[in-house]
TrEMBL record:
PANTHER family: LIPOTEICHOIC ACID SYNTHASE, PHOSPHOGLYCEROL TRANSFERASE I. Its main location: membrane. This is Phosphoglycerol transferase MdoB-like AlkP superfamily enzyme. Mn(2+) binds at E274, D483, H484. GO terms for cellular component: plasma membrane. GO terms for molecular function: metal ion binding; transferase activity. The chain crosses the membrane at residues 7-29, 49-70, 82-105, 125-148, 168-186. Gene3D superfamilies: 3.30.1120.80, Alkaline Phosphatase, subunit A (3.40.720.10). CDD domains: LTA_synthase. Pfam families: Sulfatase. It comes from Dyadobacter jiangsuensis. It comes from the Bacteria. The keyword NADP does not apply.
Length: 611
C-alpha cells in the first residue's frame, strides 16, 4: 500500500517539475522579452504559476489514481496501461508546449481554442508558421517527448515493480478517497473561486503573467468553457450605465466636413494591406525606405496619421473595416455566421444603393471563416486563390500581390460604374515570400517582414501609377488601410505601437487639398466616415465614429487576447482583463477613462453575445 501511495505522489510531483521545466524553456525561447524583466520576475512567474501546474498535474493524476483501486492482487496490466497513457499525455502536452513557443511570438498570447479555427484550413495554418524555425522546433519536440517519457516511464517501472499484494478492501476505498480529494488541487485550494488565469496573474508586466500560465491548463479551459459561454465575462457595471457611457462617446448630430466630391456616385476601392504597421512607414515616423512608394503617394491625398486597428488578426480587421464593428478580446465574431449575418456592412450599403461590389484576395477566402462573411455582406463577385494560375503562387498562401493587383486593374477596366471593390493583400504575411530580388537584407523574421512590406509597396505603387491613367480614376476614391498592425519591427515595444496603422485617401474623387489628418480614430470609424462622405445612410453602424464630424469625441479602442487598449488625445492605457492590471499607461488619464474603457468592452462584448 505504501508503494502505491508513493507512486501517486511521485508521479504527480514529476509532472509539476516537468511543467516548471517547460516554463524555463518558454523563458529561454523568448529570451529577449525575458531579459526585459528583472530576474526576480522569472522566479515570481514560476512561483505564481505553481498552483496552476499542480492543478493540471491533478487532472492527469485522476485516471491513474482511479485505476489504482483495482491493483490489489495484480498490477502488470496497470503498468502497461499507465505507460501507454503517459506516452499519449506526454506527446499531446509537449506538442502544445512546443507549438505555443512559436505561436506566442506571432500572436502575443498563450495558445488557446483560437488555434482550432485554423485547423479548418491547414494549408494556411502551416503557412503562418513559414517564418518559424520549423525543423528546430520538430527536433525540440522529439527530444522533449523522449526525455519526459524516459523520466516518467522510469518512475512507473521502478515503483510499480515494487508493489505487493494488498486487499481490495483497502485499495478500493483508499484510492477512491484520494481520487475524490484531487478536486482540491484541481480547483486550486479551498478558496471560493476555482482555479483561473487571475489566480496566476500577479504583475503589471504582461510577459511575466504569460510565463506563469500553464499551457495545457489554459488550452483545456479555453476549449471547454470560453468558446461556449453565453455570459458576458466583462461585467463591470450595470448594463444600462455602461451603455449610457458608451453612447455619450458618439455624436450623431454634428455637421460633417466634406472632403469628397458630392456630384454623382463615386467609385470606391478599399485596399486592405496585410500587417501594414505604422512602425514601418517613414512618413508616419517609422523606419525609412521600407515603403517609399506609399510615402510618396501619401503626399497626394489625405494621410491619416493617428489610426489604430481594432484587433490583432485579419478576421477581426475585416469586420472592423467593412462593418465598423469592434474586435472581441477572447473570440472573433466572423467565426459565427449567424452573428455576422446581423452586422451592417459597407458592401451591403453600396450594393443596395446601386454599386457593383467585388472582393479580391490571392489566398483562400475560407481561411478563418471569412468567405461566409463576404457572401453574407453582398459582394457580387469574390476572386480568390481559385482564380489564379499555380505559376503565380508563392509556396504557402496564394497568388503574389503584384499578380492580384494586375487582375484587379484588368477587371476594374471592365467593371460597370459605380463600383465598390475591396482588395486584401497577402505577401506581407508570414512566411514573407516575395517573387523579387531581396531589397531589405536579412533572414531573421523582422527583415523578412520588412522586405515583404517593401515588395507590396512596390506592387501598390505600380498599380496606382497605372490606375491614374484610367478613365475611372477621376471618379474614384482609393482607401488604403491595414487589416491590423504587427509586433515587428521592434523599434517600439509598447502595445499601442503594435496597433498603430496607416490610412490614406486619394484619387480623383478627393476634393480636399492633400494634408495630414491627425485626428485620433479607429479602424471601425472608416465605415461611418466613408458613408457620410458619399451621402449614404450610416445610422446602422452604431460603433463607427465619423472622423470628419464636427464635435466628435476622439478615441480609439483596441482588443488583444483578453486585454484592451484605450487611446485618448492626451494619453492611453492598456489593461489586462484577466488580472485587472493596467500594464501600460501614458499621459494624465483620470480614473474615469479606465471606467469608460471597461464600459466600452462590456457593452461591445454584450452586443456580440446578443447577436
Amino acid at each position: 500500500m505504501r508503494k502505491r501511495l508513493e507512486f501517486i505522489a511521485l508521479y504527480g510531483l514529476a509532472w509539476v517539475v516537468i511543467f516548471q521545466f517547460f516554463r524555463i524553456i518558454f523563458l529561454a525561447y523568448h529570451y529577449k522579452k525575458a531579459l526585459e524583466l528583472p530576474s526576480s520576475l522569472w522566479a515570481a512567474s514560476a512561483s505564481h504559476g505553481l498552483p496552476m501546474d499542480i492543478s493540471f498535474a491533478a487532472y492527469i493524476l485522476a485516471i491513474p489514481t482511479l485505476l489504482m483501486m483495482f491493483t490489489g492482487q495484480r498490477w502488470d496490466w496497470y503498468r502497461k496501461t499507465l505507460l501507454i497513457y503517459t506516452t499519449i499525455i506526454v506527446s499531446l502536452i509537449t506538442l502544445l508546449t512546443v507549438v505555443d513557443l512559436e505561436l506566442f511570438r506571432a500572436w502575443g498570447f498563450r495558445i488557446d481554442a483560437t488555434s482550432l479555427h485554423y485547423l479548418e484550413t491547414p494549408t494556411e495554418a502551416f503557412a503562418s508558421m513559414g517564418a518559424a524555425p520549423v525543423w528546430q522546433l520538430v527536433l525540440l519536440l522529439i527530444v522533449l517527448i523522449f526525455l519526459v517519457n524516459r523520466v516518467l516511464h522510469t518512475i512507473i517501472r521502478r515503483i510499480t515493480g515494487a508493489f505487493s499484494r494488498s486487499p481490495l478492501l483497502y485499495t478500493i476505498p483508499a484510492f477512491l478517497v484520494i481520487a475524490g480529494s484531487l478536486i482540491i488541487p484541481i480547483r486550486g485550494g479551498f478558496q471560493l473561486a476555482p482555479m483561473n488565469e487571475s489566480a496566476v496573474y500577479f504583475s503589471d508586466k504582461s510577459f511575466a503573467n504569460y510565463a506563469a500560465v500553464n499551457v495545457p491548463w489554459n488550452y483545456m479551459r479555453s476549449v471547454l468553457n470560453a468558446a461556449y459561454s453565453s455570459e458576458n465575462p466583462f461585467q463591470y457595471a450595470d448594463d444600462n450605465e455602461a451603455s449610457e457611457k458608451v453612447t455619450s462617446l458618439y455624436n450623431r448630430n454634428g455637421i460633417t466636413e466634406q472632403v469628397i466630391d458630392t456630384v454623382g456616385k463615386k467609385n470606391v476601392l478599399v485596399i486592405i494591406w496585410e500587417s501594414f504597421t505604422a512602425k514601418a512607414v517613414g512618413s508616419l515616423g517609422g523606419l525609412k525606405n521600407i515603403t517609399p512608394q506609399f510615402d510618396q503617394i501619401s503626399k497626394e491625398g489625405l494621410l491619416f496619421t493617428n489610426i489604430y486597428a481594432s484587433g490583432n488578426r485579419s478576421d477581426k480587421g475585416m469586420v472592423a473595416i467593412l462593418s465598423g464593428y469592434p474586435a472581441q478580446p477572447t473570440t472573433s465574431i466572423i467565426k459565427i455566421p449567424k452573428k455576422t449575418a446581423s452586422l451592417p456592412s459597407l458592401p451591403t450599403i453600396f450594393k443596395t444603393n446601386g454599386w457593383q461590389t467585388s472582393f479580391y484576395y490571392g489566398g483562400e477566402t475560407e481561411f478563418a471563416n471569412m468567405k461566409s462573411y463576404f457572401l453574407q455582406q453582398g459582394f457580387d463577385r469574390i476572386v480568390d486563390i481559385n482564380d489564379f494560375d499555380s505559376k503565380d503562387m508563392n509556396s504557402k498562401w496564394g497568388a503574389h500581390d503584384h499578380v492580384v493587383f494586375k487582375r484587379l486593374i484588368h477587371d476594374l477596366d471592365q467593371e460597370k460604374q459605380p463600383f465598390f471593390s475591396t482588395m486584401f493583400t497577402l505577401s506581407s504575411h508570414e512566411p514573407f515570400e516575395v517573387p523579387t530580388k531581396t531589397v531589405i537584407a536579412g533572414n531573421d523574421p523582422e527583415h523578412l517582414f520588412l522586405n515583404a512590406l517593401h515588395y507590396t509597396d512596390e506592387s501598390l505603387g505600380a498599380f496606382l501609377r497605372e490606375a491614374q491613367t484610367r478613365p475611372w480614376w477621376k471618379n474614384t476614391l482609393v482607401v488604403i488601410i491595414a487589416d491590423h498592425g504587427h509586433p515587428l519591427p521592434e523599434t517600439r515595444k509598447d502595445k499601442p505601437s503594435e496597433f498603430h496603422v496607416p490610412m490614406l485617401w486619394l484619387g480623383g474623387a478627393v476634393t480636399a487639398t492633400p494634408a495630414r489628418v491627425d485626428t485620433l480614430a479607429s479602424q471601425t470609424d472608416l465605415a461611418a466616415t466613408l458613408l457620410n462622405q458619399m451621402r449614404l445612410p450610416s445610422g446602422t453602424f452604431a460603433w463607427s465614429n465619423d472622423i470628419f464630424k464636427k464635435g466628435r469625441q476622439d478615441f480609439a479602442y483596441f482588443a488583444f487576447n483578453n486585454g484592451l487598449g484605450w487611446m485618448r488625445p492626451d494619453g492611453f492605457l492598456v489593461r489586462d482583463n484577466i488580472g485587472g492590471n493596467i500594464t501600460e499607461k501614458n499621459g494624465a488619464l483620470p480614473q474615469q477613462e479606465e471606467d469608460l474603457s471597461k464600459a466600452y468592452l462590456q457593452s461591445s462584448f454584450g452586443d456580440y453575445l446578443k447577436r
